[in-house]
Design goal:
Layout lengths: L7 H23 L28 H4 L2 H30 L3
Helix pairs in contact: 1-3
Length: 97
């Protein structure tokens, strides 16, 4: 497993790209909610994220057709970036360089 150490920079970039993609997709999922919640009164400069993790378990209950596809992509990207994170931690803790 420690032979993967030479790919550690690539794993870090995969993790960073995955987290950035998850942030963008979660903002896009706000627009595809079937029942959008009322916006809060004192929100000035940024759009609130209304997506909860339980929404991704059964996306057809909470999102329209495009939202279901985005939720599926979000799940795949989070799995890949989570695996990259675990692999990075394993390489840092178990492989001495």
């Amino acid at each position: 497993m420690c032979s993967l150490w030479e790919y550690s920079t690539t794993l870090v970039w995969i993790f960073l790209a995955g987290t950035a993609a998850m942030a963008i997709i979660s903002r896009m999922l706000n627009d595809h909610l079937l029942v959008p919640p009322d916006p809060p009164k004192n929100l000035w400069f940024r759009k609130r994220n209304f997506i909860k993790p339980s929404y991704l378990m059964k996306p057809d209950l909470y999102f329209d057709e495009m939202g279901c596809r985005l939720a599926w992509r979000f799940t795949i990207i989070s799995a890949v970036s989570g695996f990259a994170f675990l692999l990075i931690i394993y390489l840092l803790l178990n492989c001495e360089k």
